[in-house]
Write a structure and sequence with these properties.
mainly alpha, two-stranded antiparallel ribbon, 7 helices, globular
């Protein structure tokens, strides 16, 4: 018999964490071609936002397990692509002659779909690698050394992320010297983020384990990234 009463979910924090994860992606996409100059350091906008996604992914994998983190990642990629399609479609719609902001929208969001598509490839080679390494190390280290697992996995995943993004997302828009400068600047910023945010992430994961009464070890988990069971 079907119940007409709303189901009381035991997991209280997975939805806010998932929405925060998606928000980080969309915010990074929106500033994808904003350039930031801090002295000799040249950065595009996303590295000031996107490294937070590694932190949230590590927390989700630590508390809820690899399978849950993988599902959230796939859903995030889908809605990120939908966001880019909707924005691009509206920009391409006809506009009245008195509208003078069309070029500005084209400059800011004109390559958004390209950036998101490149980001999809980057995530396949980086975020799956990040949560895979993080989850495997949790088993190997018996749940200890969250800081080491998080920083190490983020460093490896971030390297692949930046490499793919620069090749697919910025090739042809910047010269080789600028691209190399961007690589080291972005990677350095990501490592700094990983070192600073690992301690709040460790505290948050501990809080969630107590509140959710959950601490998943992926001992018998199928780590195939395309298996959604």
């Amino acid at each position: 018999m079907l119940s007409r009463e709303p189901k009381n979910l035991n997991l209280k924090f997975i939805i806010p964490l998932s929405l925060l994860y998606l928000t980080i992606y969309l915010a990074a996409d929106s500033v994808s071609y904003k350039m930031v100059a801090l002295g000799k350091i040249l950065e595009p906008g996303p590295p000031f936002i996107f490294p937070l996604s590694y932190v949230i992914a590590d927390v989700i994998a630590e508390v809820y397990g690899y399978a849950q983190a993988k599902k959230i990642l796939f859903l995030t990629l889908f809605f990120q692509f939908l966001y880019a399609l909707l924005v691009t479609a509206v920009i391409k719609l006809p506009y009245p002659e008195f509208w003078i902001m069309q070029n500005s929208y084209e400059q800011v969001f004109g390559n958004l779909l390209r950036f998101v598509s490149a980001g999809f490839l980057a995530v396949l080679s980086s975020h799956f690698l990040n949560i895979y390494i993080f989850s495997k190390w949790k088993i190997l280290l018996k749940g200890k050394y969250f800081w080491l697992r998080s920083i190490g996995a983020s460093a490896i995943g971030g390297f692949f992320l930046i490499t793919v993004i620069l090749i697919c997302g910025y090739l042809g828009t910047v010269d080789a010297h600028t691209a190399l400068n961007m690589f080291f600047s972005i990677y350095g910023l990501e490592l700094l983020y990983a070192c600073i945010m690992v301690w709040p992430a460790w505290l948050l994961s501990g809080f969630l384990k107590i509140k959710e009464n959950l601490d998943v070890y992926d001992i018998n988990t199928n780590f195939n990234p395309f298996n959604l069971e």
